[in-house]
Amino acid sequence: MTDRLPHEKGFHVSWDQLHRDSRALAWRLDGMGPISGQWRAIMAITRGGMAPAMIVARELDIRKVDTISVKSYDHQTQQEATVLKTPNATLLGEGSGVIIIDDLVDTGKTLGLVRQLYPSAHYATVYAKPLGEKYVNTFITGVSQDTWIFFPWDMALQYVEPYRGDS
After folding, report:
1. Residues carrying an active site annotation
2. Distance set, CA 24 to CA 95, 113, 124, 131, 149 (Å)
């Protein structure tokens, strides 16, 4: 038996897959805004929400984009969520007409904190785990709680041993 990451179930997301899934998120959000079906702005949760937010903003032709920086992980260890950078208060208000986007909702710690700040916003993620689903309004792909998602910005091309058995 070889040493493995603590989460043997890995879901590897390529740049192409993230792009396709983010476009699907945009299509799902299209026409759902509270202002004649339109959205006022997008706020990305940094860092993971930046790439999906950029794609959604392009697809829905939303020009007002801001970020909120929340830290809830130290490498692969989840910790208490804290806000490191807030967005433009005038633009966001309480969040009405704003889509807040992240790459993933895991346990909901990050989105739970942001929901307290912007209770009227619409929360969207590309991927969702069961414990976090109640914190998000719209998502594309559900994955099991014990699956670790490997995003393209975290990866390098290298050999990977088979899940079971010897190579």
Report:
1. 102-103, 106
2. 22, 26, 12, 22, 18
